[in-house]
Amino acid sequence: MALSRVPGNEELYVGGIFTLRRKNILETTGITHIVSVLKYDFKDFEDWDKYEHLNIDVDDVDDENLLGEFERSGSWIENGLKEGRNGKKGAVLVHCAMGKSRSVTIMIAYLLRQNSEQSVASALELIRESRPIAEPNDGFLAQLELYKEMGCPRDIDAHPKYQRWLYQREVELALAAGMAPDKATPVSQTGPISSLPTDLPPTPLHSACTHHFLHPLSWMRPELEQGLLAGRLECPNSKCRGQLGRYAWQGMRCSCGVWVCPAFSLQKGRVDEVTKKDIAVHQVMGKDGFRTANVNSAETDGIRLPPEMKGKENL
């Protein structure tokens, strides 16, 4: 299967890299523009200068970022179809190694961009009508769904949902490496995320810390939804609006030396601390049989505290 024409009114084709060796097929189909979605040196192909060429240097792996290329490739394909030769419209070939995952992903993104009624599933089925092997990997499919959810924006880089997606990727990598992330993005507009690391080492210096670090809380939502990477956390009382602390999606270092990422901190001097002393009665087994025991409810109710707070105080 050298190349397959996508059903529709436009001259769109999907294929593998060996298609580029089929000069007669390229000429017969009138290909004028080629999008290559792989890492390859194309200088050994004959008559390569006959075609307008866009190269997207990516691997076919789930965590590769193709989402950031959707607008560049989409606008390039759109212009390629308009700017053919001798006054005729162009014909665009999008290829990868096999014409199965990367190239199909770019083609689906283009179809979504051009038709707001198209879904990822319907675009994929359209391509499969002529190319049954079409099958983007799971990571690319998720990126296509996010692209559709974003509304196929012309400025992907500035879109908050794209920034959040980049942030989540960066934090996962940074936490795995035990480092602060290089990038950061604001919280999801559908609700705060909770990503305070649970493996931070406890510190005996917590009593000297000047801040409490928390998971995002519901009252923080208005501030976090502004899409800023860092800012103030203010009292939710509209008559007060005093600064209680600050947040930084790129993280911040506590005065005790622990790095918290992302960081949602409250100044100790701006909040009241209450130590919960709720006592629950439980039956426990002793050497003389069952007996009742008073147990702190925070130890039995599954209350999650930041690591440096465990066993000390509860906000």
Please describe what this structure looks like:
With 315 residues, the protein is α/β, with parallel strands linked by helices. The chain has three domains: 3-153, Protein-Tyrosine Phosphatase, Chain A (Alpha-Beta Complex); 159-274, no CATH class; 279-309, no CATH class. Helices cover 24% and strands 18% of the residues. The longest helix is centred in the middle third of the chain and has 18 residues, at 160-177.
Topology:
Blueprint: E1 3-5, E2 12-15, H1 23-29, E3 33-36, E4 52-55, H2 70-82, E5 92-95, H3 102-114, H4 120-128, H5 138-150, H6 160-177, E6 211-213, H7 221-224, E7 230-234, E8 243-248, E9 252-253, E10 259-260, E11 263-267, E12 279-286, E13 289-296
Parallel strand pairs: 2-5, 3-4, 3-5
Antiparallel strand pairs: 1-2, 6-11, 7-8, 8-11, 9-10, 12-13
Helix pairs in contact: 2-3, 3-4, 3-5
Family: Belongs to the protein-tyrosine phosphatase family. Non-receptor class dual specificity subfamily.
Organism: Hyphodiscus hymeniophilus
InterPro entries: Dual-sp_phosphatase_cat-dom (IPR000340), DUSP12 (IPR016278), Prot-tyrosine_phosphatase-like (IPR029021), Tyr_Pase_dom (IPR000387), TYR_PHOSPHATASE_DUAL_dom (IPR020422)
